Amino acid sequence: MNAIEHIKHYNAGRNALLLAHKYERMTEGLYRFFRATSHLFYADLAQHFTASDTSRVWGCGDLHLQNFGTYKAENRLVYFDMNDFDEAMLLPITWELSRMLVSIHLATEELDLEENESATLIRAFLDSYTKTLATGKPIDIERRTATGMLQVFMEKLEKRRRKDLIKERTVKVDSDRKLNVDNEKVIGLSPERKAAVETMVMDWQQQHPNPFFKRICDVGLRVTGTASLGLERYVLLVESPNEKLYLLDLKEARHSVLKPYIQLDQPFWPTEAQRIVEIQRRVNNVLPTLFNSITYGPKSYVLKELQPEQDKFDFNEWDGELETLETLIRTMGTLTASGHLRSAGRQGSSIADELIAFAQESKWQQELIFYCQAYPTKVHQDYFDFCEAYEEGFFEE
């Protein structure tokens, strides 16, 4: 099937209203389209990328510039790290890095950078990644160790307050607070669906050794992101035992987009949500607060706190200096290698010594750079075809 048919087939069965939002958002720009079509990317990679790579790492499976972000961890410090593991699997290093390098090419195009500047950033990421891998020592980045525009960004986030987020996302109804369904981020649910979600989460809560909340005040359908739009995703307003209000994110888990293409043996995961949670536990040094999987009937979900400090890096924060952008991308390279080292030797992944040896090889880097430099032409063509088909009504239900 061609790219347009592949997109429609991949998204079949999703919530029709949210899927319409997804398709509309995919027309807004090349990079957003790229973020939403990892299934196209890996189908092409499996066919055309021929580098020999015997490495095995626990990867997030969808590594790109905007799958790095900030979050408040269990120790209450704000960290910057990979933060989306929906597609996570055991995979070769070149497969993990390929999507990141293409995302750099596409992002620099949107930032109007020259080809040589894009090449500088590609080299910076790979240099930082391989040097960190070669040390065999993972690191993490929190506000006190951040530098440059990342430090400024994280300092701004630390000034955000939970109570302000609650006021922004809720409205007062009599003496209680409810989710603000007039906000574009939330859609109201039928009483039946709301009751089903409440039952699912309360059943899980009663089995949890340290209950985070005592009651659910409200539940809504959450509208956010692009790639996951159309899957079940809820926002819950809950009250803690000390009567503070919190927002929770509950997201449906499905199998990784990489599943049809990766030939490596994978562990048995009881549910897809447990796969996501367990791999993130291995890769991140410190986890976000209230990070758990929930199983309910045939489906599974990832539950976590929706935090005011949680955000993806906004490239509008960039000051226009290539050096500051290069520093940020080097940080991302360091964090990627650190995650691979942190999870080394677990259930089939390469041990640290193997990763160190791999970092010192150059052939795979040259082959990867060559492929990722050429691939954006395919993204352009797919985006053009998608926008044309969208205008002609091909994606209308």
Automatic annotation (TrEMBL):
Pfam families for the chain: DUF2252
The protein's name in its UniProt record: DUF2252 domain-containing protein
Phylogenetic classification of the source organism: Bacteria, Pseudomonadati, Bacteroidota, Cytophagia, Cytophagales
